[in-house]
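Render Thermonuclease family protein in 3D.
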Amino acid sequence: MKKWLVAVAAAALVGTGVMVADVMRGDTTVDRIIDGDTIDVTMKGETKRVRLLNIDTPELGRDGVSDECFAREAKARLEELLPVGTKVSLEYDVERQDRYGRELAGVFKEATFINEVIVQEGYARAVVFEPNRKFYDRILAAEAGPKHKKSGIFGAGGGLFRAGPAGQREAGSSAAGFRKLG
């Protein structure tokens, strides 16, 4: 009876245009931190790569390319927040995967919204991965503190970010605008 009522309520909400959150809870465990905004998790016995939605951290260097400023610090902080073996919940938006096949999600450790913490502490900036805007306003608000204090990636001096057309805020490769070290 309970399941039937939940199904009816969910259908009613969808029918009225209210979006029902797509959340993966319980059996999701952190396996590895890739960089400041990407982790590997195990869910339902399968390893998935997860890109933290609506944030962007500097990229680690590879193939002879230097690290971007604060890339190692961002990764180290995410390792502190999400040690291997940590249970997390993932909350999805409109599109669940990016063009690289990574899950796009808000990552929660109990009640702590990890995407937001990384930004509040100055290790990341807010970005939009259209059409996924679910957490963008919250992340953008979290960015105000370190931006105002000029801390973390916002205190690295002029030129850390390259200006995009008309204030565009998108993520991707190093073209997202972090300055390289070295």
